[in-house]
Amino acid sequence: GVNIPWELTWGPDDMLWCTTREGDVLRIDPASGAYDTVLELNVNDSGTEPGLLGMALNPDWSNTPKVYLAYTAFDFQNGNHERLSVFDWDGTGLVNEEILHTVSAASIHNGSRLLVLPDHTLLMTTGDVGDGGSSSQNLNSLNGKVLRLNLDGTVPTDNPTPGSYVYSYGHRNPQGLIYDEATGQILMTEHGPKGGDELNHIVGGRNYGWPAITY
Fold this sequence. Notes:
The protein is an all-beta fold. It has no helices and 15 strands.
């Protein structure tokens, strides 16, 4: 009964947490498969890739039970955009949305994967919104990037460029992101043009080449 599940992560509460592109957050009992819908968001999911996408849970769950979500929305002030929001977990649902950041969004190439690193900073991938990569090489744009934020939405003081959220750039549509505890590496999968998908080791400040370098 789940339609277009997108993110699936193991929660610190020993439950499986899942987003659906249509806007639901599910909390799943791994023993029985039974689940509760703990949030229903009004998202802009018009297209093949927008909607409710990435999710990360605060690792200090016992003291700060918060859930981070990336989803696309539309309003007359911002137009079509992607929100990074944080919600409080009250034991039965996600409440008290706080929008930490917004970037441009489109019907394709929204990136959206979230990852909390061991230093308790948050990575967020963003796509080039189908612009052919012009934003990916523009350091004044937050699209086509991996962004690094503090958990309160501020810019970490040790980011590659002082005052900038940009951690790495030159990306097309990165939608897979993990931290490899064995090596201490950040690994990311990225959708390229047909035949140009990539698996990258993400290093702060590095340019990953899109659109000049691909395949």
